[in-house]
Write a structure and sequence with these properties.
The chain has 100 residues and is mainly α. The protein has one helix and no strands. The longest helix is centred in the first third of the chain and has 18 residues.
Length: 100
């Protein structure tokens, strides 16, 4: 019983000591004061990639004809080796657009 009462008195003393501590006011934080450090990462592909690009290649240029890209060919067929319909919810349609 003495151990419990001594522990309780000790905890009260510790909590009381920190309850009245004078903490300084928080300074306003300016996000613009943070200096951004950029690290340039070099990747070694094992060959000179510039040899395989067109002479006037610009990776930052906007493509002239974006609609001309064919990302998915309607004639592409993939054999998965199993029936995917067994793993999809009932009535699943991947072409339905969900309104946000």
């Amino acid at each position: 019983m003495e151990i419990i009462s001594c522990t309780a008195i000790g905890l009260l003393y510790v909590f009381g000591a920190f309850a009245n501590s004078n903490t300084p006011k928080e300074e306003e934080f300016d996000i613009n004061s943070i200096q951004m450090m950029e690290e340039e990462i070099e990747i070694d592909l094992g060959f000179d990639a510039a040899k395989y690009l067109p002479e006037d290649f610009n990776p930052y240029a906007y493509p002239q004809d974006v609609e001309g890209f064919n990302y998915i060919d309607e004639n592409d067929f993939f054999e998965l080796g199993f029936d995917p319909e067994k793993h999809l919810p009932e009535g699943f349609d991947p072409y339905i657009k969900v309104a946000k």
